[in-house]
Structure formats: structure tokens, C-alpha cells
Amino acid sequence: MIRFKSLSFLSFARSFSSSAQTSMATAKIIDGTALAKSVREEVAQRIKTLQAQHPRFRPQLAIIQAGSRPDSSVYVRMKSKAAEEVGIKFMHVPLPEEAPVDDIVQVVKKLNSDPTVSGILVQLPLGPHISADGERTVTEAVSPEKDVDGFHAYNIGHLSSRASNPLFNPCTPAGVIKLLDHAGVTIAGSHTVVLGRSDIVGNPVSAMLRKRDATVTQCHSRTRDLPQIVSEADILVSAIGQARFVKGEWLKPGAVVIDVGTNYIPDATKKSGQRLVGDVDFDSAASVASQITPVPGGVGPMTVAMLMENTLQAAERQWEETRARKVKPLKLDIKEKVPSDIEIAMAQTPKPVAELASEIGLLPQEVESYGQYKAKVELSVLDRLGHRKDGKYILVSGITPTPLGEGKSTTTIGLAQALGAHMGRLAFACVRQPSQGPTFGIKGGAAGGGYSQVIPMDEFNLHLTGDIHAVTAANNLLAAALDARMFHEATQSDKALYNRLVPTVKGKRAFAPLMFKH
Amino acid sequence: MIRFKSLSFLSFARSFSSSAQTSMATAKIIDGTALAKSVREEVAQRIKTLQAQHPRFRPQLAIIQAGSRPDSSVYVRMKSKAAEEVGIKFMHVPLPEEAPVDDIVQVVKKLNSDPTVSGILVQLPLGPHISADGERTVTEAVSPEKDVDGFHAYNIGHLSSRASNPLFNPCTPAGVIKLLDHAGVTIAGSHTVVLGRSDIVGNPVSAMLRKRDATVTQCHSRTRDLPQIVSEADILVSAIGQARFVKGEWLKPGAVVIDVGTNYIPDATKKSGQRLVGDVDFDSAASVASQITPVPGGVGPMTVAMLMENTLQAAERQWEETRARKVKPLKLDIKEKVPSDIEIAMAQTPKPVAELASEIGLLPQEVESYGQYKAKVELSVLDRLGHRKDGKYILVSGITPTPLGEGKSTTTIGLAQALGAHMGRLAFACVRQPSQGPTFGIKGGAAGGGYSQVIPMDEFNLHLTGDIHAVTAANNLLAAALDARMFHEATQSDKALYNRLVPTVKGKRAFAPLMFKH
Predict the structure, then answer these.
(1) Is residue A259 a contact partner of residue A302, using CB atoms and an 8 Å limit?
(2) B358 reaches A (C-beta below 8 A)
């Protein structure tokens, strides 16, 4: 809200009145509806082209909506319609209005790690019980890579820095820049005045204009001499939500006006009794400005169009990353006088298994870590990657160990190292757990040897995750249960067991057959 | 760099020459050296006060320096000296100049999880082989909670947003604001002109001034009519690195000038042959401005002082968080008709163990996760918390199970629930792994029962992490090795083994005693 207190209007009016009177030409209208349509068509075309090459390429936009505020529902429908039209799959995630922050964050996290979701948007506002801090917790739970709204602090940080670019530009500011470019306006070197300092428009659009080499003056409710400042603007961007606040007389003749405001004012001639107007008094401004966006039909339609562009961009980036996947092998420090197996194994710090999993393209939820260097893989990965071409399977079968002890395991690991680290192919060594004690002395430990070993060798030799033991334990448990049952039924009555129980209150006995609890 | 091409100086000079001539008063000097000293003294005093209450409170600043550029070494020494003076422990982490990005990131991560380190600073520039992207990767590896430089995208994002505050303000911009406040300058409502758009000063100081309700115009190399814009400034902040670029004639009479520039110019009268000057032509500016910072002795000393303030703030926040630790118990969905143990166990989704570990104050490196819901704790935690007062130990000893089967385990878990979830005390239930199979049928599974169970119950009953198995496996391994050795030595010579070996090249035999490899 701009409160407009001290107008030093007099001096300003004097210096500019002459030029304002002489230029009565009507400004060119910047048509946001048409531009938004062409942006959406470009997005649709690009998706079609990519899908022709890669049939599995499928951008998806997920919107989380808590409750069912009518205005929110309208926005969600608009986005859903636009998405469907351009070929972006749409996922609506409705939550109860009273959903607490923690629950919404859980939903966001699930979408973060869902590889079919390209972009995530949390429809604000959330329920009335959620504070501004809570709202921020939710929007910042969105992974920056899927933050198609561009509202995550990480992306705003990059947007606001000179030395870097954000993963996404916020949609409305991006629409403003696109409108200026489309209208052929030179941003670099211009003096641009931005009215408003919201996190949705004013602040990010100022940062973007600065990046495009404009000299930016940002005004707000505490700004003095606003008409004076506005009068210096080659480009004016207004985002303050005050109906027809900016007057044509304030403008520099020939200025370009981008009106982000959407304000409803009473209008008896309309069926709804109201009418949509911008922050700028259109009629007076159009007679001074060189170009101007109308409301409606200016910035409004651009927001959704840019959201589609961001979602496509997210999907493309994620697609590229999946294809560009690369395992970075650890460096081997190979010594001329080869140390013992255990020395070699201990000299190497394994790569954290979570990092390795990410390098080979496993999703976090598909990996169950056991310590920092071991993990199990969910079998669901077989379904997710079912469409992929099968890899080549190399079986290292029975082999007589060489004089230096190289047998099946060493050959298997060595082959994986040669194919993976040296030839750059994605290679996995598949070995069983070491056969260990009972056969020790007859053959090796099944962990390979020399520079071709399974590490962490010590843990591998002690059966890693304890699974084999869990199977034997389950087997023993079952056997003991059967034994106990057979023994008791064959030789005992239940009576002796119940006798152990103490009487309960009221002199009655409680009968709880302990051994058959469940 | 401001390139200064099109001066529309004539019209500007006309309108302001009269006032510039009339105000020949000399500006008040804003003494940064004195203010910086008082900031550092306040920090020192606050640390003393906190240490009087909490003797273990000890802020520490870590600086990573790759290589030994003389200018970097000077800065590091300045910071180290300031830290020591105020009572902040200083850790210098020197790395070789050729250290690759990955290595530096590893060092940063280690410092992130070191609870004795309050703040981390990476002295830039890094080695010449590291690109701007690499440098960003390193600075963004610093945890935002320890980013006392305030350069992390996450903190810049919050700094640049209206709705939030960063964990840290960057030091030089924070110094600028502090100087203005100290000088009694009203920032709110002022028209402030910032020269420069660097990520270290120009951009963040603009965001901070905007937050303080200034109307900010940010200028840079592409700005036209710079003197005209400067002439409108109530406050001028210059950070462009151009010696004496801003002239006194440009200034509005009575303006406040903050000169962030530090530029060396030749000066034959100095022993070093050079002299430090600011971006502003001090002599001419001082006769127009109402207040002005000198160079040196203005903004310069504030940067290090604010770094001390940020480090203290980090330490205090981390200290508070450690003390405010709280376990959030999961909600129990208690049914009137109590379901079976297995139904109750399966109905609850355990809290991810990493989250639980963080709630009870374990550091990530002290916890080794086994799947998502189980973990081992490093014994080093005993040393780290050795100074803490011991907790109370409650032993649930031999007990005759109740008719409903409640024995030692159920009582133990129930007690921990009562003390923890109901009374809000930090309570841990310590139980051994279930005794399982051999005694099944005689007693329960040692996982408790009803709503007082150890979960995940199924995994717990299968010996969780396989440790017991690892011990038996190690024992078997050793036994087999001894057996094999005794058998071979008592009944066999080594000859038969060697006979299995194939001849090597040059007609000689290779002798590799397979079974005694190590």
C-alpha cells in the first residue's frame, strides 16, 4: 500500500507541464494476451518436438492446494487448463484446509523425489492457521530444482546476485521482462522506476531489470516525491495494488508503462457490479506514454504463460541431467611395491553410498543406507526402469586362481573397474556375500584382491547388513515356535502355565495364554 | 567499473550551482575506526557476560585459505587478530593453492558439522584454477547457519525478500547501515543512491536500505546522467572502486556520503609511493555534504567488526538451539479395543532416525543409519558430552509378568514414554536385542507389548543391524583359520599346494602360498 503524504507536486508540475501538453499522441498498446498465447504455443511446440525425439519426455506440474478458497480454485483451474493445452501433465494435490505445516512439507518432499514431477507449486495462501513463517517453511521445502514459481530463497538469492543466475525466474516478473523485450524497449541504460517491493513482483522485477543493465529506482509506501521520481522514468513498472493511482501527468512523455496492478472497482454498468483496473490511470497515461499495457490483457496472462515456460525448462533440465549421468571413479593410489590386500582396502576411503547412488541415477527413496558406505536397493527400481534397454551381462564363471591368487572375484571387480573407470561405461560388479569361515583355507574371502577389491572389505567379510543372519534368525524362531508347540501339546497340559499367573483383583483369575499371545 | 560517457552535466550544473556555492560548511566526519572499536568492545563484553553464565560458551571462527596470496594473508591476519581480541577462538585452515573444489568442499562440510565452529569463512579468491562457478560451489557448501560472511544464496535470498530476514547480513553492507545509524541519519523515507552492483556491497546494501524504507536508486556502469541522479540523493553510498570519481559538485547540499571505495593512487610523498583514497573526491565532497566517511578510517574497519558481531550471533544462535532441544513425540492413536501387538506396531510409522537424532542433539557424524529407522551411535559422543551432568539411570530388574504379559520390556518402554512424551523429559529406553528363538515359548520377544513397544518390531526381532551375527561370523572365521592351519601343519606339507601352480614365463615357477596370503 502506498500512502501518499507529502506531494512536492508543484515544482514537478511546473517543469513538465509543457511537454505533457504537447504530446497528445495515444500510446501503443502492449498486448499481453497475444504474447502470452504465443509463449504458450512455443512451449507446446517445443514439447512436441522433444517428444518426437524422446517419447518418454513428459513434463508434469504439481500444484498443492490446502482447502478450497474460491479464488485459489480459479487460479488452479487456469493453470491446469494452460498446462493441458501445452501438453504438460497436471497433478492437483488437494489437502484439507486445516492441514498442518509438517503434513504439507511431507507432501512437498514426496513430490520433490518423484521423478515424474518436473515442477511443484504451492498455491498460496495456505490455511488461516498457518503463519507467514509456516508458509515460508512450506515454499522452502520445495526443491530449488522444481521451484517453478521461483520463490525459493535459494533462487531469489541467485536472482539477486550479479554473479549468478537463478534456476527459475519468478513468473510475473519474467512476464514483465518478456513484454518489454517483445515491445522492443531498450532496457539497458534506461532509468526504470519500480513501484512496490513485494516478494512476488516489486523486488524480483527490480533485480531482473538491474541484471539487464537498467538504472532502477524502487519506490514504496515510504517514498517521498513519488510523482517527481516517476517523471524521470523511461520505463515504469507498477505493482502496488492501488486502483488508478499513477496519473498520466506524472509520466515522462514517451515513457513505457507496465501495469502489474489488478484492482477491482465498482462499476454499475457491469453485470458483476465491478470492473478490473490497473495501478495506472490508463486514459491519462495512454496520452503521455509511448507504450502501455492494458488491464486486463497486459501482464495478467503472462504469469501463467511463464509458469508453463518454467515447467518446461525444469523438465528439460531434469531430462538432460538424467542423460548426462556420470560416475566419478575414486582415484587409485597405485604403488609399485603392491601392499597387502588389507593395506590397500584400508588406504581407500569409499565414496559415501548416497553420493554413489545419486551418480548412478537411483532416487533417494530407492536406497536404504546401511552405514555411510553400504546400502540396499529397492526392487521397485526394476519397474521404474523397466522401459530401459537391458544392459550386457558378463558372467565370470569357474576359474582356476592364478599364482597370485586372482580368481573369480578379483576378475569380476577388475572387469568392472576396467569397463567403468577406464572405459567410462556404467558398470556394476554383482557378487554374493563371502562364503567365509567354513571354507576358509580352501579358497579366498570372495572380496577380490590387490587393487581389485570390494570395500569396505572388513564389513563385507562380516556379511554387511546382517541379512543372512536375519534369515537364519527367522528360521530359528519358527523352528523354536513349532518345537515348543509340539512339545507342550504332546507332553503337557496348559494347566501348569496358568498356575504361574497371580490372581487378579476381585478374587478371579485372569487367563492370558502367554505363549499364544499372537 | 563505471564508464562515464554521456554527461548531461550542463543542465544539472545550472540548477544546483547556486546552492553548492552557498554551503561551504565542512561536513562532519563519520569515524569508522572509533565505531568499529566500540562494536568490537561490545562483542567482547557480551562474550564475557555469556561466559560468566556459561563457561563452555566459546565462539569460534574458521577461515579456509587456499594458497598464500599476500593480500589474502593480510586479511586473514586482520580477522585473526580481531577475533583474538574479542575472545573469539580462531581456526586457520590453510590448504594448498592447487586444492581442487571437491577437496575444499570436503573441508567445508567437516567444519559445518563441527559443533565447536560457530562461523566459517572461505577467503576469496581461491586458486587461479577455480572458476567463478567453482568458487560459488565452495561458498554455498558453507551451511547457511555458519555463513558469517552472509554470501550464501540462501541468506542473500532472505536478505532480498521483504517477508523475511537472513540469518546473517553481509559484513560490509551491515557496517554501512551501522555507520548511518550511528551518525543519526534517518534512512526511512530518504532517497538513497547506491553506486555499484557488486554482490559484496552494491546489491546487498541496496536490499538492506530498501528494508529500512529508503527509496533506493542503484547505479552502475551503464547508468546515464549519473551526476543528475547523484544530485537527488539524501544519502549516497559509493562502492565502485574508482578513485575520487564522485565530485563534490554532484552532491545535494547536506547529503550524507558513505564511501566504500578503497583505491590506491600514486603519491610520491609516501614511503610506499601510494596512498589510499575512496570513490568520492573527499575535499570537494566534504564542503557540500553534511556528513561523510573518510578513506581510510570509514567503512574499512567496520567490515571486520561486523564479522565479529556475526560470529558471536552465530555462536549465540547455535548455543540457544542446543539448549532449546526438544523431542516431538509421535501421536499414539489409542483404540478402546486394544489391537494385537503386531497391529499396533505396524500402524505406526516410526520417525526417521536422522530426524530423531537431530532432535536429541546428536551430530550427523555421530549417527550411522541402518535403513531409515535404525541407527548406531558413535561412542565419541561420550567424550563430546563428557562435561554434561549425568542423567538418572532407572533399572527395570527381574519382574513377574502380569496376567496381560507386561514384563521388563513393556515396563521399560512404558516408563520411557511416560517420562518422555508425557512429562517432557529427555528419556531413553535402553534394551538389549531380543533373546528370540531358543527361549521362544517360555518368555516374550523382548520388544514390549501393546502401546509400549520397540518399533520397527519386526526388524528388532530379527536382530536389527546384524551385529550379533557379525560377531559369530568373526568367531567362526577365526576358528576356521586356526583349524585349517593346524590341520595342514599336522598332516600336510606345503609341497602339494605349490604343485597346483602353473609355471610363469622364463621357465621359473612362481611361489605364492595361497592359504597364508595374509
Answers:
(1) no
(2) no
C-alpha cell at B112: 559445518
A355-408 pLDDT tens trace: 999 999 999 889 998 888 999 999 999 999 998 889 999 999 877 877 777 788
How far away is chain A from the Cα of B472, in angstroms, using its nearest Cα?
Answer: 9
Lowest mean pLDDT among A109-118, B232-241, B310-319, B342-351: B342-351
Q: Is residue A377 within 8 angstroms of chain B, CB to CB?
A: no
- Name beta bridge partners: A493: none
Q: Is B437 on the interface with A (CB under 8 A)?
A: yes
* Predicted structure pTM score: 0.83
What's the gap between Cα B506 and its chain centre? 62
What percent of chain A shows pLDDT beyond 70? 87
Which cell goes with A460? 563385507
- Round to whole Å and give the CA distance between A130 and A234: 41
End-to-end C-alpha distance for chain A, whole angstroms: 66
Residue A280 CB contacts under 8 Å (≥ 6 apart), including other chains? A236, A238, A244, A245, A246, A257, A259, A261, A292, A295
Say how far residue A449 (Cα) sits from the centre of its chain. 43
Q: Find the angle CA(A302)-CA(A307)-CA(A310) to the nearest 5 degrees.
A: 125
Nearest to A28 by CA among A292, A279, A382: A292
Give A300→chain B minimum CA distance, Å.
22
Instruction: Give dist(CA B176, CA B161) in Å, integer.
Output: 19
Identify the residue whose cell numbers are 575472545.
B87
* Residue carrying C-alpha cell 453485470: A271
Residues of A identified as active-site: 79, 123, 149
CA A474-A479-A485 angle, 5° bins: 125
Does the ipTM exceed 0.85? no
Question: For residues A142 and A135, is the Cβ–Cβ distance under 8 A?
Answer: no
Q: How many CB pairs under 8 A join A and B?
A: 257
